[in-house]
Amino acid sequence: xxxxxxxxxxxxxxxxxxxxxxxxxxxxxxxxxxxxxxxxxxxxxxxxxxxxxxxxxxxxxxxxxxxxxxxxxxxxxxxxxxxxxxxxxxxxxxxxxxxxxxxxxxxxxxxxxxxxxxxxxxxxxxxxxxxxxxxxxxx
Length: 139
Prior knowledge:
The chain has 139 residues and is mainly beta. The protein has 1 helix and 10 strands, in the order αββββββββββ. The chain has one helix at 2-21, and strands at residues 50-59, 63-64, 68-69, 73-80, 82-87, 92-96, 100-102, 109-113, 119-128, 135-136. The strands form 3 sheets. It has a 4-stranded antiparallel sheet with strand order 1-9-4-7, with no helix packed on it. The chain has a 4-stranded antiparallel sheet with strand order 2-8-5-6, with no helix packed on it. A two-stranded antiparallel sheet has the order 3-10. Strand 5 and strand 6 form a beta hairpin. It starts with a helix and ends with a strand.
């Protein structure tokens, strides 16, 4: 019985040591909004079977993206570089490492990397199965 008691005390001691070595989990809210970056209200989600798409996009230096729009709600975070985003009304948003964008929906815009380093951005799209995430402007 004494051996069992010593074993239990030993296990409890080891457990408390292990618990003390666990690092504290941190949660940082990067974005929470009902509006896109230019202040427009986000639309309702489309009807249909949900489809989530996550992309890592790399934009080389001195590159301007084609004008386009997104028919689905999406948000991204800049991992590297500086990205300039321009909408059709010439509203401009400059994003740098760690910045979050809640993108425009159904509004034509484009991005441009004016810098000398590639831009890396992770983008999360909340769409539906039969809806494209990006549509190029026909202009």
